[in-house]
């Protein structure tokens, strides 16, 4: 395999601007707890990326594994025992990450998600706003599934998929999954000595999916195998996010990737912003209309957010997070977007300045009625 293709993962990581890193239980945890020395080295690598301007979000497994040890539970846990183990292990997991980044003066924020938080648009927007604020403040969010309240019906099932959905929420350009193997193979390398690793995957084919192995049961922790990692990469790719699958059990895993070490890069299909616009334009039915003046219409076409001063009227009743049609003067369609306000709130702040929102509503919100990242514009009609 050539050095040119082998370095593709390193080049992708080097060019990342918003990175979601997934660390599994089998990588993070030893039988007696967290691998503190390994974690400290990883934190140092991430701190260097953060200093270079890369925004970082971590999806960390390990709560159940750590809690199981603390509560002296065996394997094959019932759902209620898993939830109890998660509750006992979350504090230890958060403390481990906080301690690792303390040496670099980087604040850590724990965020617990359930499937509902990404399936429900309003909760999705709340999660996205929280992540955006944390990243703006220079914090590193550490995300895990909220196993203490999630049932089998409302669970992601593994943190690989959770990481992919987190990448969707924050519009990451790179998802890095640290694994117990050094990439994606055409057969299970733990049982087939002739298995060959893919350096770059342009599209995940059924043949590649069929070759994916199950979880690494030898470690006794973790729920996701290569199949779940490929499923996560598929989700990420459709959102414009590339995925790197690389070995995590080694020391300084990020440095090894940057130096051209073994890894698999799964390319994205387009950019995150373009994928999001396609989703808004094609899959969401408008729940109402927001009418804007000519100045606002021109500003939107120029790449701006929709501010309340440019709103001239509202039709229909809709909630925060709903899709709405944006209509210009003379009924000309401008596009579609996700509303950051309820319809009644927009009626109260229409034609007013953004700095008046708190006085008019009695609480503070972001200044835009529809953020530019939540807009999908139509082509301007010919005159």
Task: Describe the fold and architecture.
This protein is α/β, with parallel strands linked by helices and 383 residues long. The chain contains 16 helices and 17 strands. The chain has an eight-stranded mixed beta sheet, with helices on both faces. Strands 14-13-15-16-17 form a five-stranded mixed beta sheet. Helix 5 crosses helix 6 (79-102). The radius of gyration is 23 Å and the shape is globular. Residues 1-6 and 216-223 have low confidence and may be disordered.
Shape: globular
How widely separated are the two ends? Answer: 55 Å
Mean pLDDT: 88
Helix content: 25-40%
Rg (C-alpha, Å): 23 Å
- Physical arrangement of strands within the biggest beta sheet: 5-6-4-1-7-11-12-10
Summarize the biggest pleated sheet.
Answer: 8 strands, mixed
Compute the number of helices: 16
Poorly predicted segments = 1-6, 216-223
Strand content is: 15-25%
Structural class: alpha/beta
Beta strand count: 17
Question: What are the salient characteristics of this protein?
Answer:
single chain, 383 residues, alpha/beta, eight-stranded mixed sheet, disordered N terminus
Itemize the secondary structure elements and their pairings.
Elements: H1 3-6, H2 8-14, E1 18-23, H3 25-28, E2 29-30, E3 33-34, H4 36-51, E4 55-60, H5 63-70, H6 79-102, E5 108-113, H7 116-119, H8 121-136, E6 140-145, H9 159-170, E7 174-179, E8 184-185, E9 197-198, E10 200-201, H10 206-211, H11 226-238, E11 242-247, H12 253-258, E12 264-266, H13 272-283, E13 289-292, H14 294-301, E14 311-315, E15 323-327, E16 333-338, H15 343-349, H16 357-361, E17 375-377
Helix pairs in contact: 4-6, 5-6, 9-11
């Amino acid at each position: 395999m050539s050095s040119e293709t082998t370095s593709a993962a390193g080049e992708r990581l080097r060019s990342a601007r918003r990175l979601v890193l997934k660390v599994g239980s089998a990588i993070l945890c030893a039988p007696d707890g967290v691998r503190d020395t390994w974690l400290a080295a990883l934190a140092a690598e991430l701190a260097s990326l953060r200093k270079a301007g890369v925004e970082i979000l971590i999806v960390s497994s390990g709560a159940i594994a750590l809690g199981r040890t603390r509560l002296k539970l065996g394997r094959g846990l019932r759902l209620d025992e898993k939830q109890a183990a998660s509750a006992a292990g979350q504090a230890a997991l958060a403390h481990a990450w906080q301690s690792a980044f303390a040496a670099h003066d980087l604040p850590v924020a724990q965020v617990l998600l359930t499937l509902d938080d990404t399936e429900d648009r309003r909760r999705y927007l709340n999660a996205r706003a929280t992540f955006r604020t944390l990243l703006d403040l220079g914090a590193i969010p550490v995300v895990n599934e909220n196993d203490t309240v999630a049932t089998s019906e409302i669970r992601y099932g593994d943190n690989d998929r959770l990481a992919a959905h987190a990448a969707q929420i924050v519009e990451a350009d790179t998802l890095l999954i640290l694994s117990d193997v050094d990439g994606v193979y055409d057969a299970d390398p733990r049982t087939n000595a002739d298995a060959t690793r893919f350096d770059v995957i342009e599209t995940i084919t059924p043949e590649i999916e069929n070759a994916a192995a199950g979880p690494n049961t030898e470690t006794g922790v973790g729920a996701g195998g290569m199949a779940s990692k490929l499923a996560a990469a598929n989700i990420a790719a459709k959102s414009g996010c590339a995925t790197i699958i690389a070995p995590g059990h080694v020391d300084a895993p990020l440095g090894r990737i940057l130096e051209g070490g073994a890894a698999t890069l799964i390319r994205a299909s387009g950019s995150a912003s373009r994928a999001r616009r396609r989703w808004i334009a094609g899959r969401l039915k408008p729940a109402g209309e927001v009418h804007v003046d000519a100045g606002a219409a021109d500003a939107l076409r120029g790449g701006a957010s929709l501010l309340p001063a440019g709103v001239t009227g509202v039709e229909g009743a809709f909630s925060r997070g709903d899709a709405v049609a944006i209509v210009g003067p003379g009924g000309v369609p401008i596009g579609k977007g996700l509303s950051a306000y309820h319809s009644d709130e927009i009626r109260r702040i229409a034609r007013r300045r953004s700095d008046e929102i708190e006085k008019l509503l009695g609480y503070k919100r972001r200044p835009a009625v529809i953020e530019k990242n939540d807009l999908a514009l139509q082509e301007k009609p010919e005159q």
